[in-house]
Specification:
The protein is built from 13 helices and 3 strands. It is mainly α. A 3-stranded mixed β-sheet has the order 1-3-2. The longest helix has 22 residues.
Length: 268
C-alpha cells in the first residue's frame, strides 16, 4: 500500500498536549476520570520514553512517531469498546493517517475533486476503495479519529445517510467505556459540533435506537445485517417504515423521518 505521510510542522507544545491526553485515556482503561498531578507526570514521562524508542527503532521523526502512536491508540479504543466482526479485528493502524492541512486537502480532492473543503469543514474521511482513513491533524482530534476508525471497522451495507448517522451515534453515544469524546484545537479549546447533516442523521438514529434498541443497529453496522434491522424497524413502525426513513434521510427531509419514527408511540 502506498505511503501517504504528511509534512512535519506541528509545535512541541502541540505534541506534548496531545500525548498527555491520549496517554491518560489509555492508562485509565479508556475511562474519563480525574487524574492526580503525579499520575499525569508519570504518564507524560512514559509517553516520552515510548515515543523516543519508536523513533530510534523506525527512524521516524518525533511528529511521525506521535501520529503513529495516536493511530495505535485509536485502534485500541475502538477494538476495546465494540464487539467487532472477526474479519475486522485486524490492526488497521498503518492505514490510518494523521496529516497536515495541505496534505489532507490533496487526499480529499483525489477522492472528491469538487468538494468545498472549507464550506463543508471536512476534517476526516474514509476511502472504502482501499480502507484507508485520513484525519486533518489540528490538535486533539480523537472524536473525529474514532468516527473514521469505525468506518474502517464497519461491515455496513446501509444507505449512506443512515450509515453516517449510525457511525456518529456510536462515536458519541455508544462508545461504552470511553465516555464523552471531544475534539480540541491547538489552543486547548473544544471544537463545537456544527449543525450539519451528520448531526441530524445522528439524532434520527438516536430515535431509531429508542424504538428498536442498539443491538439491531450494531448487527447491521458491524456485521452487515441490514435485513435484520429492517425487520425490526418495520415490525415496530409498520411495513415499509425502514425504506421511508432512508428515503427521508437521503433527501435530508428530517421532519419526515421524524414523523415516521413517531409512529412507534402512536402504535403503542
Amino acid at each position: 500500500m502506498k505511503s501517504r505521510q504528511g509534512k512535519e510542522v506541528n509545535t512541541k507544545q502541540d505534541r506534548v498536549s496531545e500525548s498527555r491526553e491520549t496517554g491518560r485515556r489509555l492508562d485509565s482503561g479508556l475511562e474519563r476520570r480525574q487524574e492526580l498531578p503525579g499520575k499525569r507526570q508519570a504518564i507524560s514521562e512514559r509517553d516520552r520514553v515510548e515515543t523516543a524508542l519508536a523513533r530510534r527503532q523506525t527512524g521516524q521523526s518525533e511528529k511521525q512517531a506521535t501520529r503513529a502512536a495516536k493511530a495505535d491508540i485509536t485502534e485500541k479504543i475502538v477494538s476495546k469498546s465494540f464487539s467487532l466482526n472477526e474479519a475486522k479485528q485486524g490492526d488497521n493502524s498503518r492505514d490510518f493517517h494523521f496529516q497536515d492541512k495541505d496534505d489532507f486537502d490533496k487526499e480529499v480532492h483525489q477522492w472528491a475533486p469538487d468538494i468545498d473543503l472549507e464550506g463543508k469543514k471536512v476534517v476526516g474521511y474514509h476511502d472504502p476503495r482501499d480502507n484507508q482513513a485520513f484525519i486533518r491533524d489540528q490538535g486533539n482530534t480523537l472524536e473525529t479519529a474514532v468516527h473514521e476508525k469505525l468506518h474502517q471497522k464497519s461491515g455496513s451495507k446501509m444507505p449512506t445517510r443512515l450509515n453516517e448517522g449510525v457511525t456518529e451515534y456510536f462515536t458519541r453515544q455508544g462508545a461504552g467505556e470511553i465516555g464523552r469524546l471531544k475534539n480540541i484545537d491547538n489552543r486547548g479549546r473544544e471544537i463545537p459540533h456544527p449543525v450539519s447533516d451528520y448531526e441530524h442523521d445522528r439524532e434520527i438514529v438516536g430515535k431509531l435506537s429508542a424504538t428498536v434498541g442498539d443491538a439491531p443497529l450494531h448487527a447491521a453496522y458491524f456485521d452487515g445485517k441490514t435485513d435484520e434491522l429492517q425487520q425490526h424497524v418495520d415490525s415496530a413502525l409498520g411495513p415499509g417504515a425502514f425504506e421511508e426513513v432512508n428515503d427521508a434521510l437521503k433527501s435530508r427531509d428530517y421532519e419526515r423521518a421524524d414523523a415516521v419514527l413517531k409512529r412507534g408511540g402512536d402504535r403503542g
